[in-house]
Amino acid sequence: MTSDDGARPQRTDRRFTGDPTRARLLEAALDSFSTKGFHGTSTRMIAARAGLSPAAVYVHHRTKEEILFQISRDGHQEALDVVLAAIDSEATPPGRLRAIVRDFATWHARRHTLARVVQYEMAALTPEHADLIAALRRHTHNAVRGVVLAGIERGDFTVRDPESTTVALLSLGIDVARWYRADGAWTPQRVGEDYAELALRLVGHSPGASRNQDDEASLAR
C-alpha cells in the first residue's frame, strides 16, 4: 500500500499499525469518504472496499460515524505531532514559524486524501466526537499562536492581531489538501518550502532585525 504521493507509508502513520483488519477497514473508509463523501458512503461500500462482509465492520466499529471519528482523530493527531516536532527543531520564532508552515503544508500535500477527509467532513461527527477533535485543533492553534506571540515580543514579527494571524498561517497548510494532486507539477516538499517563505512575509519578518536582536542579546550576556 502506498501513501498519497506514491511513497511507501511512513512508520508514524497510525492507520498502518495494530490490527490489520481494522487498518483495512479504516483505509477502505478513507478511500470512500474522500471520493463519495461521508454521506455518500455506506458501511456496505466500506466492507466491499476492504474485502470483508458488512457484519465485519461492526466487529470493529459500531457506526460509520465512529469510523470517521477514528480517522479524524488520527489525522489531527498526526498534524499536531508535525507542528510540535517543527517547534522543537528550531530555537527562534522565525525558525520555528518557517519549520511549522513548511512541515504542516508538506504534510497536507503528502497526506492530501487523509487531510481532505479530516478537515472537510467534520460536520458529520457527533457533538461529543466533534468536541474531542476541537480540542486537538485548539492544541495545534495554541502551539502556533505561541510562536507568533514570541515573535511579536522579540520584534521579529510585525502583526497587530496574533489570533487572526495564527488562523491565516494554519489556513495556508489546510487549504493545500483541497487542491493538491499527486500528479500535479509541485511536489509536497516544493509546496512546503514555498509556503514557508510566504508565511514569513505574512508576519512581516525581517531577517536582519532578528539577527541584530540576537547579537544584542549575546553582548548583554
TrEMBL record:
Q: What are the residue boundaries of the HTH tetR-type domain, all occurrences included?
A: 19-79
The ranges of region (Disordered) come to 1-20
A Pfam family annotated for this UniProt entry: TetR_C_24
Cite the SUPFAM superfamilies for this sequence. Homeodomain-like, Tetracyclin repressor-like, C-terminal domain
Example GO molecular function term? DNA-binding transcription factor activity
Q: Which residues bind DNA?
A: 42-61
Q: Which domain of life is it from?
A: Bacteria
Per UniProt, which keywords does this protein have?
DNA-binding
Q: What protein am I looking at?
A: DNA-binding transcriptional regulator, AcrR family
Give the organism, scientific name: Thermomonospora echinospora
